[in-house]
């Protein structure tokens, strides 16, 4: 369990990256949603012991961040921007990470590396130099290093960046299996990354925590804000583009779904929100308020 209590982080000139964030994360996978610049990466770095909060308190399984050596042994971390030594092979790099994590038994380390390479579908490229890898292949090695030693807590920041659709699905399923008995925090700005895998969700925006709950709670944030209308091409082009969530053509007309506090068009009818619409409505409400 991760407990975050009144955590704030300020940088030079008084700019706040996080402001009084409090949330408790139990076993299973929690999605941390928010637009770029919301403070997600700052929070991830604090939880991984790579940055200190300006104020507030964090514990991982009851251990405070002031005991970083113990924390790091429990946590696997995949940062948003992942760099690895280009002169190493993928296998050599994973071995290096295992040593840094205190995995001193060579045989056990090699078995773990073989298991992870198969898990991320990199066994056939493991002995090639990292400098020859594509961006997606580097990302898969990054995923593998975060899982070295089967950590109790896994923190992954925008992990599906650079993965093709098939690998994205494979990774989501892998995270789901991993989270059955562990705590996983998945940071993303893509709602689809959490829709079918996360038990809980937290939404950050401009450093503040807007909501925590289950996916139904997030979907419910769009209640009363989502509208649908069948419009002519002229009516469609006259709409405020910032209101339109999606549109499709049907028999010469445009079927539009819109997010608005007020009725956006005389022909619009209120409809049940989807998960992404709930998320966007929450951000819009926060902006308008």
TrEMBL record:
Similarity comment: Belongs to the ABC transporter superfamily.
Keyword ATP-binding among record annotations: yes
Pfam families named among the record's database cross-references: ABC_tran (PF00005)
Domain of life, source organism: Bacteria
Boundaries of every ABC transporter domain copy: 2-231
InterPro entries: AAA+_ATPase, ABC_transporter-like_ATP-bd, ABC_transporter-like_CS, P-loop_NTPase
Sorted UniProt keywords: ATP-binding, Nucleotide-binding, Transport
UniProt-recorded name of the protein: ABC transporter ATP-binding protein
GO molecular function: ATP binding; ATP hydrolysis activity
Keyword Protein biosynthesis listed: no
């Amino acid at each position: 369990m991760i407990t975050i209590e009144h955590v704030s982080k300020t940088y030079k000139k008084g700019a706040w990256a996080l402001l009084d964030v409090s949330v408790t994360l139990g076993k299973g996978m929690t999605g941390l949603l928010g637009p770029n610049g919301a403070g997600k990466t700052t929070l991830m770095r604090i939880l991984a012991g790579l940055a200190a909060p300006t104020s507030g308190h964090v514990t991982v399984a009851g251990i405070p961040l002031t005991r970083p050596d113990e924390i790091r042994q429990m946590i696997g971390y995949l940062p948003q921007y992942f760099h690895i030594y280009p002169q190493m092979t993928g296998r050599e790099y994973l071995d290096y990470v295992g040593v840094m994590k205190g995995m001193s038994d060579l045989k056990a380390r090699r078995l773990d590396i073989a298991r992870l390479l198969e898990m991320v579908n990199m066994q056939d490229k493991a002995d090639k130099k990292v400098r020859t890898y594509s961006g997606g292949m580097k990302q898969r090695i990054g995923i593998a290093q975060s899982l070295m030693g089967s950590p109790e807590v896994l923190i992954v920041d925008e992990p599906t960046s650079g993965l093709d659709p098939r690998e994205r699905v494979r990774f989501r399923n892998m995270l789901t299996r991993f989270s059955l008995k562990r705590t996983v925090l998945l940071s993303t700005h893509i709602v689809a990354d959490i829709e079918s895998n996360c038990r809980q969700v937290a939404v950050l925006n401009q450093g503040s925590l807007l909501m925590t709950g289950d996916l139904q709670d997030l979907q419910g944030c769009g209640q009363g804000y989502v509208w649908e209308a069948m419009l002519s091409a002229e009516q469609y082009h006259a709409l405020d583009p910032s209101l339109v969530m999606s549109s499709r053509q049907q028999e010469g007309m445009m079927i539009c779904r819109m997010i608005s506090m007020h009725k956006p068009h005389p022909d619009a009818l209120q409809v049940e929100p989807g998960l992404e619409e709930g998320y966007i409505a929450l951000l819009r409400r926060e902006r308008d308020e």
